[in-house]
Amino acid sequence: MSIFIPILTLGLLTLALAGLIAVANKKLYVYEDPRIDQVEDMLPHANCGACGFPGCRPFAEALVSGQVLPGKCSVSSDAGRAAIASFLGVALGAEEKRVARLACNGGINVAINQAYYKGVSTCQAATLISGGGKACSWGCLGYGDCEVVCDFDAISMNEFGIPVVDIKKCTACGDCVEACPKMLFSIHPISHRLWVACKSLEAGDEVLDVCDVGCSACGKCAMDAEDNMITMVKNLPVINYSKNHKTQDPIQRCPTGAIVWLDDKDGLIKGKEAKKIIRKGSRNMGYS
Amino acid sequence: MSKVTLNISTSPHLVKGLSTDTIMKNVLYALLPAAAFGVFSFGWNALLVMITTTLGAMLTEHYLNKWYGKLTTIYDYSAALSGLLLGMTLPPVFPLWMAFLGSVITIALGKFIFGGLGYNVFNPALVGRAFLQAAFPVAITTWLQPFLPERFYSVSSSIYAWPFMRPTVDAVSGATPLSAFKFDKVSTEAYDMAMGICSGSVGETSTVFIILGGLYLAWRKMLNWRIPVSIIMTVFVFSAVFYMLDGVAYPSPFFTIFSGGLMLGAIFMATDMVSSPITSEGVWVYGSIIGLLRGVIR
Amino acid sequence: MSLINQNKANEGFFKKLGENPATDDFIKGLWKDNPVFVQVLGMCPSLAVSNSAKNALAMGLATTFVLTMSNVLISLLRNFIPKEVRIASYILIIATFVSMVDYTIQAVSVDLHKSLGAFIALIVVNCIILSRAEAFASKNTVGRSFFDGLGMGLGFMFALFCIGSIREIIGSGSLLGFQVMPDAFEKWVIMVLPAGGFFTLAALLLIFNHYKLKKSKA
Amino acid sequence: MDFFSLHTNTFKNGIHPPENKEDTKGLPIRQFPFASELIIPMTQHIGAPAEITVREGQEVARGQVIAKATGYVSVPIHSPISGVVTQIGLVPTISGNKAQGVTIKAFPSSGQEVAEGYCIDYKTASADEILQAIQNAGIVGLGGAAFPTHVKLKVPEGKVCDYLIINGIECEPYLTTDHRVMLQQGDDIYMGIRYLMKVTGAKEAIIGIEGNKQDAADSLTKIKPTDIPVSVKVVPVKYPQGSEKMLITAVLGKEVPSGGLPIDVNIVTVNIATTAEIGRLLPHGRGIQERVITITGPAVKKKGNYLIPIGTPLRFVLDHVGIVDDIAEIYMGGPMMGPAVADLDISITKGTSGILVFGSKDVIHTDKIYPCIKCSACVDACPISLNPSKLGILAKFESYDRMVSDFNLMDCFECGSCSYVCPSHIPLVQYFRLSKSRYKRKQALNQQ
Amino acid sequence: MNQESLMTIFINASLINNFVLAYFLGICPFLGVSGRVGTASKMGAAVTFVMVISSVCAFGINMLLVAVNAPFLQLISYIVVIASTVQLVEMFVKKASPALFKALGIFLPLITTNCAVLAIALLQTSKGYDIFQSITFALGGGAGFTLALVLMAGLREQLEFSEVAGVAKGTAIVLLVAGILSLSFMGFAGLGG
User: Structural domain of residue C79, as residue ranges?
Assistant: First the structure.
């Protein structure tokens, strides 16, 4: 008999508690779509924001609710996107790959520094001190904030202090756009190969005095381009990408190489008449 | 005018000129009189202990930095300061190997592991001291009588015990005023304690020199005077209340504030810039809490 | 230190064994996914009863037993337990085994039971057991679960023994109750105090991290 | 002494940097010669840049408006010289960004007659008319901030102004412009105060002067007019007492709340040089064409206080006063808050209160940067009781949101006291400036 | 019956024999959720709450078990009761206050496997505390746990802005700090004997 008492006790106890939990489970249940967790697991967890959402979780919520398509995630692999699409039973929504492009090519070998900046060595900090020391107000300062901020190791500073974007690694997350105090980065579809690598609003000698590769606003590219594809606005050529921009004609007569052709394999290609830069050291500091 | 390249830097373009190593150096100087009095009182024993901890701390700092591939930071004097402070809280006949171990713990565990100067959350010297207290409770409560005649002729054998071996105690041991009161209810004159005519740790006996050092630092604005003042005030009030309740079981407030290294702790330990609060309100609270805890634990 | 080096030397041997899934499950718990050093689980007993090597061994054995048995049972029942109450059921199963171990130890040695105190009972809430049940036993076959439990348990015991012997040697000058240090050795009282447990485990973790960092750099 | 602080005619904390005013404080204001070509940027004030109203080739007279205000927070710009506009385009500015500007070539051998406008009489004109006149005169805060004065003077609906405080503190080391203005333009100052009191409706005006300018205080007291309730108050020397909020605490013992304006405690403050300028220009209906600037520093040969036309190129100024060969750094304004100059092609603007030139051997090189040892020197120095130590650490770890929400970063006005006292030589002010700009940028991005 | 005064029990459980720093109970949450002072204090409050509830339940269960003469079921019934209590609390919080659940919810399953909670039940039984002593014990233990957690969190908030040496990052530094804290808690040993 005595063996039954504990069994009974424990049995009753367990039963009572199980019943309580079962009731509570029914009464206090809060529904959450389980697919959100699953989709989030399938995402790359980079939380980079390239999709336009604050992170992978909100993107997963939006995916499940059908607001967006998986193609928006530029970090995930093709297979990953396809997997999410088939899991949710939606279209892939493929988008063209976009990458970050830099609108300056004024490394230390071609652009002048007018002052020695001393202080916290980031571009953001330097910009606040009389523009950071570069003679060109619009030019890249070369302290590499973009390199630091890039989560995908897609940006590296070259020997002249100019960031180079590795288009294979770039996910168009836009962190560099945000980080650059001179606003030199912008996100473009990879098919936009015609590119103006200068942001100087000045013209002629004012530009050439401080930088060998700046746009001197001569307007030759605008003349050579078909169909008014290029217009000069505020001393800079502006390319209308909705027109046919697949030809290299406009860059050929550029005297400084400020308008360039960005090739997948060969990188940055300058026109035939662009002056050749053979200087490897830094261009003279200042005016002395 | 010829064209020139200028420097650009952020404002302000003036600096006061005081520097961190100067502060550390001055705190070190302020400790020296009390340390010297310890040597005067306890002889070569005390000197050996303090030299061991100071050098031990500096060596540890140097080699840890080297091993970690950083520039050595012993020139900012903070390692030497922590080492000396540790030495001053140890008994004069403390085995040197233990003292050395303590200084290694002080720097490695109290400071380096947190990222070095400025990042430690505890006072490094206190970490070292607490470790030694817990590891070797006997050795750290073996005291020496002050002003022994042979103090400048011989060194206690426990000082040079073999590493990791138990020290042999041959010292003429003396009770600190605190332990004398705690166990035998013998009260020492506050005057004697202030002048350092009592046994105790190497650097804590001469309250007068410690206060003088503190005053020097306060005058140079290298010490937050609010901390020692609030600690000592709290301890004084706290012990005065108990003394008035029962004058036999509890010591007088004057005895309390001059005993057991309270002054050293309040002036040189609690004021460690890195681990003490920085706003003046925070400092008062911090001081009173230390004082209260001190009263409770003693 | 010596124990770890020895283990390192054995790594090649372990790798060979690792080709078989059952032994792989076994080895994983011992070294690669060691519950204490790598997963940092089951901290309470690893610190609390590791002031002597003997306690550590006893605790390790008890945990291994419970871990293995509960893994097996849970694996057996994995298709019968409803998802909603699985955790509660696991705990119930674990608690049963723990009660058994508790009374066994009491029967074998009252002294040991006294020195381990409530910690035998607290094996119930050792995160290792629940985490293995949830992460492994509930998804894998009985055989694999057995080896997983055994490996994890022995890994836990190994870690406990490391900590326990270090603390005992330095703190009491002995190992498993036998004096190993000379008479004149000054015992570090701190090592048998709670703080010593924290410091010892931290030191072992530091050594582990150091090797991990070195490996990742190489 | 925080427990026992009674009103001690000064504010809490603060620092005492070396004053270095001896070289120039005894030198009277002298007229600077005209450069052959003046470059006038349109961004001389805070707010919307002025819009150019002249064209290339146009002849302008001295005092003629060459750019009009574009909006409320904006002021017009007057030609500082009679000459011909040679170029309109981008010109360099102190901030490092190029701005629209006008280049005027002086007529050779011109007498530089000043074009005068309509007189505004403080007795007959209404408050609004005076405000309009102040804007038309292109007057901005001449202490260095260059905030349009008429905006500051406008008392918002529902608020009243009890006190008008005239800021004659000049706490920045080296600078002596306000000192000289007080000594030499006392009558202009009192005339300016008459206008200001009419505009603000203040019941009383107080001129706050630091103790190191006792002679200025004496001279102002001596010529004090009887028709307006005005008094001179001398306060102890301390930096940054010239900041609005510090000044109010020093003079009246009132605290302006965090994020508030002086008018929240019924006070309006105006810089003394600005007051003098109002008193000098308004009776003649003129605009600002020149301002007093202290040119000093170890590398300057002819130190002094000069009346320099706006737009004079910095290069011309330096050539004229003479500097040693190896100059290293130039600051526009005082050494505590003035920005460093990167480009000698910039020109004098309305906000320039001083030009300091340091040779390479005079520059105090920042030593090794140590980690923060939490010595609390910065906390004891910060005039607005922030915690620069904590802020600096947070900035290092880029916790900008916490800096703003928990530690009132936005209250910081970059006076530089913390960097000045820091024994670890941490560039705190730069960190804060950077953090503010990063934070603002993030906010702007989030709002998009 | 145990004759200890309530005050002694409380001080003992909270300071002298601090659950975390002297008994190593609840180390997992101690390491896991001591990142922020805010979350740490919430966790502490949650644990204290569960401790008191389970202490009361355990007292009742124990009386029942003694009555039916089945003390060997002690452990198993305690754990079942605690597990279900925690689950009930979790559900209740999830329903009643989603915000609180977001802040607290993740800790609640952790509490189930928190040895401190089970230890409270086991220890009070082995010490033979009556109901008031049990509740005081639970409160003291919870207070001690909270104190250790909050202290740790405060220190870790500072550590977040330190350049902790690479090898010590993560658990190691927390254990070291815990060791130092444990050293300093030894100072309380003189209290109340």
Answer: 2-13+21-217
Determine the Cα–Cα distance for residues A254 and A271; give it in Å rounded to an integer. 6
Q: In terms of DSSP bridges, do strands D59-60 and D83-92 run parallel, antiparallel, or are they unpaired? A: antiparallel
pLDDT tens figures, C9-60? 444 444 444 456 666 777 776 777 777 777 777 777 777 778 788 888 888 8
Q: Quick one: CA dihedral A173, A176, A179, A180, positive or negative?
A: negative
C-alpha B267/C-alpha B257 separation (Å) is 12
* Total number of domains constituting chain B: 1
CA–CA dist A126, D434 (Å, integer):
9
Which one of D237, D262, D284 terminates a domain?
D284
Q: Contact, D78 vs D288, CB < 8 A? A: yes
Asked if A9 and E87 come within 8 Å (Cβ–Cβ), the reply is no
Residues of B within 8 A of D330 (CB-CB) are: 6
CA pair distance A287, A114, nearest whole angstrom: 7
Task: State the number of CA atoms in the 13 A half-sphere of E47 facing the CB.
Answer: 37
CATH code, D233: 3.40.50.11540
Helix, strand, coil percentages for chain A (3-state, nearest 5):
30, 15, 55
Residues E161, D393 contacting (CB under 8 angstroms)? yes
- Fold of the domain spanning A34-88: 3-methyladenine DNA Glycosylase II; Chain A, domain 3 (1.10.15)
For E160, the token pair is 């977040």
Give, as one character, the DSSP assignment of residue D10. S
Q: What is the pLDDT of residue A26?
A: 66
Domains held by chain D: number: 3
What tens digit of pLDDT does each residue of E119-134 get? 888 888 888 788 888 8
Cβ separation of C190 and B134 shorter than 8 Å?
Answer: yes
Residues D11 and D155 occupy one common structural domain: yes
Three-state DSSP state, D121: coil
Q: Do residues E16 and E189 lie in contact, with contact meaning Cβ atoms separated by under 8 Å?
A: yes
- CB contact (8 A) between residue B119 and residue E164: yes
**D94 at interface of A, judged by CB pairs closer than 8 A:** yes
SS3 A188: strand
Which of D95, D342, D427 has its CB closest to that of A133?
D342
Question: Subunits that touch chain C (at least 3 Cβ pairs < 8 angstroms)?
Answer: A, B, E
What is the count of residue pairs from A and D with beta carbons less than 8 Å apart?
A: 57
CB contact under 8 A, C118 and E126: yes
Nearest CB to A129; choose among B4, B5, B8: B8
Min distance E80 CA to chain B CA atoms (Å) = 40
Chain D residues touching A115 at Cβ < 8 A: 340, 342-343
B neighbour chains, 3+ CB pairs within 8 Å: A, C, D, E
Find, in chain A, the residue whose alpha carbon is nearest to that of E86: A21
Contact flag A20-E88 (C-beta cutoff 8 Å): yes
With cut-offs at 50, 70 and 90, classify the pLDDT of residue D58.
very high
Instruction: Select from D337, D370, D417 the residue whose CB has the most chain B CBs within 10 Å, as the one to mutate to test that interface.
Output: D370
Q: Do A118 and B2 touch (CB under 8 A)?
A: no
Euclidean distance between CA atoms D295 and D285, whole angstroms: 29
Q: What angle do CA B252, B256, B261 make, to 5 degrees?
A: 160
Give the C-alpha distances (Å, rounded to integers) separating A223 from A194, A213, A243, A254: 15, 20, 15, 11
Chains that touch E (3 or more CB pairs under 8 A): A, B, C, D
The backbone torsions φ and ψ at residue B184, rounded to the nearest 5 degrees and listed phi first, read: -115, 0
Domain ranges of chain A: 1-26, 34-88, 98-269
Residue range(s) defining the domain that contains residue D333: 35-115+289-359
Between positions 170 and 189 of D, the ones with CB within 8 A of B are 173
pLDDT tens digits, A151-161: 888 999 988 88
Measured on CA atoms in the order B96, B102, B105, B111, is the torsion positive or negative?
Answer: negative
